[in-house]
Amino acid sequence: MGSRPRRNSGWSSKLVITLVLLNEPGPISLVAKAGRRDGFTPETLHTERISLVVHSGGGLVVLLVPMVLSIYKPRGLTRHRRRRQQTTSASATT
């Protein structure tokens, strides 16, 4: 018998994503508090603002990649469908 392919549960990527999300409320509240004060200029908290933009873009990529992969199917059959066709054709010839 052949060995079954090992499934990746994705727990490590979920852990990393959770840690990033838990780290973000600090810079968000810092920028929000600075925006409420008088004298807020575009140069204020430049690093934190860049960090928020980068993390937002990364979050967008994390959401878009699975969506695109769920819609897009390359030409030809998937492995599962090809295997199903082979077993169906093998049982039809016997």
Give a short summary of the structure.
The chain is mainly alpha-helical and 94 residues long. It is 70% helix and 0% strand. 0% of the residues are buried.
The helix content, as a percent range, equals over 70%
The number of helices is 4
Question: Span between N and C termini?
Answer: 21 Å
How much β-strand is present in the residues? under 5%
Number of strands: 0
Mean pLDDT: 77
Structural class: mainly alpha
Globally, the shape reads: rod-shaped
What are the low-pLDDT stretches, counting only 5+ consecutive residues below 50? none
> Which sheet architecture does the biggest sheet show?
none
Domain tally: 1
Order of helices and strands: HHHH
Q: Rg from C-alpha positions?
A: 24 Å
Write structural notes for this entry.
The chain is an all-alpha fold. It has helices spanning 11-23, 25-36, 46-71, 79-93. The protein has one domain (14-93). Helix 2 (25-36) packs across helix 3. The longest helix has 26 residues, at 46-71.
Topology:
Blueprint: H1 11-23, H2 25-36, H3 46-71, H4 79-93
Helix pairs in contact: 2-3
Keywords:
mainly alpha, 94 residues
